[in-house]
Design goal:
Length: 137
């Protein structure tokens, strides 16, 4: 016969995560920026995108808000000139917002961690995650 052992961890004192209310915040890129490549299951078109993990920098808000993710599409062989230019323009605007130096003509995703940017954050319903924070600009 075995006895139940309770490990006291203070779980009752841990607050739930809370979404940021709509507004402007300073955000920090935390952790590794991920590169995803593949083909769309629906259309078969190729895709390439960068996924940036972000947390609010405010010390009071940070521990109890979930990491949010901002995804930017990169050009692929299937893009026309306008699509390619628009994707690169959005990436350039994001780089400018976090003061990333792209003067060499390209980017290194490993160098984004720790950079900060000001962004308008909103809430959106996601099919899988429920209500999440998203960057509006």
């Amino acid at each position: 016969m075995s006895e139940n052992t309770i490990i006291e961890l203070g779980l009752n004192d841990i607050p739930d995560l809370e979404l940021l209310p709509k507004g402007e915040y300073e955000l920090e890129i935390v952790g590794k920026v991920q590169l995803f490549e593949g083909e769309s299951q629906k259309s078969g078109d190729p895709y390439k995108m960068l996924k940036f993990p972000l947390k609010v920098t405010d010390a009071e808000l940070r521990p109890n808000t979930p990491t949010m993710y901002h995804t930017l599409s990169l050009p692929t062989t299937g893009d026309d000139k306008d699509q390619k230019t628009n994707k690169l323009r959005r990436l350039k605007q994001f780089c400018d917002a976090c003061e990333y130096d792209y003067s060499a003509g390209g980017i290194d995703p490993t160098l984004f961690s720790g950079l900060t940017l000001n962004a308008v954050v909103d809430q959106k319903e996601d099919d899988v995650m429920g209500l999440i924070n998203v960057i509006k600009r």
